[in-house]
Write a structure and sequence with these properties.
77 residues, two-stranded antiparallel ribbon, 3 helices
Length: 77
Amino acid sequence: MLAERSPADRYLAESATLLANHGLLVFGPDAAATTHLVVAIEEGAEAEIATAAIGGAVDFPPGAQEAVRASIARVAS
């Protein structure tokens, strides 16, 4: 559910879209933020393509993302 996402996740979910036969459409509060998002998406796409050479991407097991976030929160506090 969108309401349960962090502000950063909501920003990413609402600031970019991939248009079929056109490419990436990205917008943000300023040119620097928009450029940062474009670079992050491009690097993610490059990593996804590179994984094909070693058998393809593998999803994290259920609960892994939450465990990492909890670990980061413990270290950050």
